[in-house]
Amino acid sequence: MASFQEASRKSTDTNAVKLEEAPTLNGNSVNLTNGDKKNPAATLKPQPNAKTAGTVEGAGASEKLSGAEQKKKAKEEKAARRAQEKQAKPQAILPDLKIPRKVETLEEVGRRGSAGAPPGTPIGKSHHKPTGSIQKSMPLRPAPPQTTTHTVQLKKDNKNVALFGHLYGLPRRTTIAAAGKDVHPAILALGLQMSNYVICGSNARCVATLLAFKRVVESYVTPPQNSLPRHLTSHLSPQIEYLVSCRPLSVSMGNAIRWLKLEINNVDPDTEESKAKADLCEGIDNFIRERITVADQVISNIAAEKIQDGDVVLTFAKSSIVQQTLVEAYRKGIRFRVIVVDSRPLFEGKHLARALADLGLEVQYSLTHAIDHVMKDATKVFLGAHAMMSNGRLFSRIGTAIVAMMAKESDVPVIVCCESIKFTDKVALDSIVSNEVSPPDELIIQGESTTALTAWRDSPNLQLLNLMYDVTPAEYINMVVTEYGSLPPSSVPVVHRLSTNG
How far apart are CA 58 and CA 381, in angstroms? Predict the structure, then answer.
């Protein structure tokens, strides 16, 4: 019996030594307390090392995540889906590559979207908020079928010349349709006449405008609670706007309208309406007589003295003051010959040549393409003017500059006949900034349907430009004859100041 107890005690001591010599179990440290020696298995407490700690924590996190971690993971999944959609978009918009695109079902999209979702999340649902709100993933819409044939609409060809694009405005009015109710019938008729070139020429347009405004003043009645100086000025505005819609105002017309407005503003408000209207009408008649009629007579007398027997006078297009000068010289008994150079599309020189030939003058008619040939016979060049600019340049019918330059090249003096009402304080360096663009259809020969320009609007890359005026440099002009006398182009601003302030 004693030997049996001694053997049991030795066996127990041997096990205790073995436990003390084994500090680790399966790679983990083991703590064995003295109080648990009777039951060593119950007191084994494994302590994880550095390698196994991360594995154990990761396994626990996969089973249960905090709200912030779930939100972060949902954002990452959302960003991954967006990246996949962006990669798929370029394939859908390629017109020439027919790539079959698989339509994902709700189950497949849910499986792809919830691949990294926490366990227990239903398929097709993903957590986006820590509160547990669930958003369904919708199936992607299939891309529309792409075809390789595309209908291309040709852009309508722009028929306006880009360099002169700033000169194009509203189409020229050719009817009285949509005219304002305040426009006087005399103004309506005048606008159509100017638009159709029935009244053409700077002087003729200016006189016709003043006479039309005279009729407007005669039929004007001041409304109650208004005064004539204030209301009549505003009453003229729709009349002027209608004229501008038919054709842009000439420089002489602008000067005349400014003078008329100034006269209206100077009317005493206490003056009776009938007397004020009579004074304005008388002032219009005096303006026409002094600034145009008498001025033309003085200019024609001065310019006629420049013509001598045997001269060959060359002129361009038709100017009323030049025509009056030639007629005055012929009536004085001076024998000379006239060369009329003309151009399309108005052919104004035809009327001048016909009128001079009917008086008995010897007239030669030619177009601008023969200017080099006819300039050899000319001894003097007389030109009309649409306006004289402040820098001494001539603003006249297009083609005038060519005639003046050819005359300068041939040492032929150039004389410009111009009234002071056509002087302006504006400066012109070229004919691009300020000009008048006429309808391009005027360049088409009327009555012929087989010309190359008949269907020009249907011809691509074909544009027609119909300018009315050009600018002649002052160095090509030898003399400017006005009612104030003969003067060089550099004196134009002085005469303009005298005529305006006088």
Answer: 106
Q: Is the peptide bond before 345 cis (omega within 30 degrees of 0)?
A: yes
CB 239 within 8 A of CB 183: yes
Structure tokens at 371: 């200017």
Using the structure block, give the residue that is written with the tokens 């303009």: 496
Contact 445, 451 (CB under 8 A): yes
For the entire predicted model, the pTM comes to: 0.68
Whether residue 46 contacts residue 29, with contact meaning beta carbons closer than 8 Å, is answered with: yes
In eight-state DSSP terms, residue 272 is: -
Instruction: Decide if pLDDT at 221 tops 60.
Output: yes
DSSP state of 437: B
Q: Give phi and psi for 459, each to the nearest 5.
A: -90, 120
Number of H helices, E strands in the chain: 15, 15
Percentage of the chain beyond pLDDT 70 is 73
Q: Are 356 and 338 in contact (CB under 8 A)?
A: yes
Alpha-carbon distances of 497 from 250, 390, 413, 425, 494, rounded to whole Å: 19, 10, 27, 9, 5
3-state secondary structure of 381: strand
Contact present, 43 and 16 (Cβ < 8 Å): no
- Greatest distance between any 2 Cα atoms in the chain: 181
Q: 125: exposed, middle or buried (C-beta count within 10 Å: 0-12, 13-18, 19+)? A: middle
For 270-308, b/e burial (b = at least 16 CB within 10 A) is eeeeeebbebbeebbeebbeebbeebbeebbebbbebbe
Per-residue pLDDT at 450: 66
Structure confidence at residue 435 (pLDDT)? 94
Radius of gyration of the chain (CA): 50
How would DSSP label each residue in 310-350? T-EEEEES--HHHHHHHHHHHHTT---EEEEEE-TTT-HHH
Closest CA to 422 of 199, 208, 253: 253
**Angstrom distance (rounded) from CA 326 to CA 349:** 14
Residue 23, judged by CB atoms within 10 A of its CB (0-12, 13-18, 19+), counts as exposed
Dihedrals phi, psi of 79, to nearest 5 degrees:
-65, -40
Helix, strand, or coil (residue 494): helix
What is the number of alpha carbons within 13 Å of residue 208 lying toward its C-beta? 21
Residue written as token pair 């006088």: 502
CA distance 122 to 114: 8
Region 401-423: what's the mean pLDDT? 96
Q: Is the pLDDT of residue 26 over 90?
A: no
Give CA–CA dist 259/274, Å, rounded. Answer: 21
